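Aggregate trends can hide what the representation actually does to any particular protein. For completeness, the protein is quoted in full, as a sequence line and a line of structure tokens.
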Amino acid sequence: MWKPADKSRILKDIYYCELMLSLQPSRLKFWEHIRIEPEKWIENTVGKQGGGFWVVGMIGKKVIYYNDIEEGYNLSSFINYGEVEHYYAGQAELHEKIEGLYQDISGR
């Protein structure tokens, strides 16, 4: 039976991600600028089931969040702080999501 992810799971993902990013200092520095303390944000479609999703990073009006239903990290916009605007079912690892975002922003 499905259970929502707890904060300790998210912190383990962040630890693993930072180990991976430590091999690429520019990516680690980028992560350090967008990282936030993990916090649950609501998502008004399927996110209600687990009390929302864990948001771990923020840049502009976008957040990186963990979709514990699909077991992967996703990027969504937000209008109101504390509310993920769009549900995505991606299954990326956190370091993969950060790498993609870094490449989009830096043009690399």
